[in-house]
Lumazine-binding
Amino acid sequence: MFVKPCLTVLIGVVIYFNSLAVVSSVCEPDKTKENQLVRQIVKQAVEYNDWVNGENYEQDLIKYYTGQALENILNAVKDFRKTSTDWYSLTFLQNCHIVYNDGNLAIAVVLLKEVDITNYDLQLLQAIFTLHKTTDGWRIINVDFPQTPYDNGFNNN
């Protein structure tokens, strides 16, 4: 007689906690989808090359950057275009690891591959991208190249 009520209570407790797990997993934001969106913005920003001589580069860069990062890159592009320098390298996203994402702020550690198209020399660069989720989607608010010896237009030091 004592076993049947205990089993009923035990089964009820198991069902209750299982239902809580299902509800919490449904209500919790899908980090995988958000992380895919972050990776997509980083990849598009890194591999974008119309800034060299494209006409709509300002409108394009607004899709990837915001705030001070946008201002810094627009100024760097304007300075580059004032000189008569050619650009002989392409940059590709090699790897992107999201180390933090709370749904509003994301941090990605990125490995970039830069290819000199004249001699096919390769250079690997590490970068840290910080993104903020805006009403228009994820946008890059900062890029840090911790081991890069040259000024990339993002460092405010």
Notes: The domain at 28-144 is CATH 3.10.450.50 (Nuclear Transport Factor 2; Chain: A,). The helical segments are 3-27, 31-47, 57-61, 67-82.
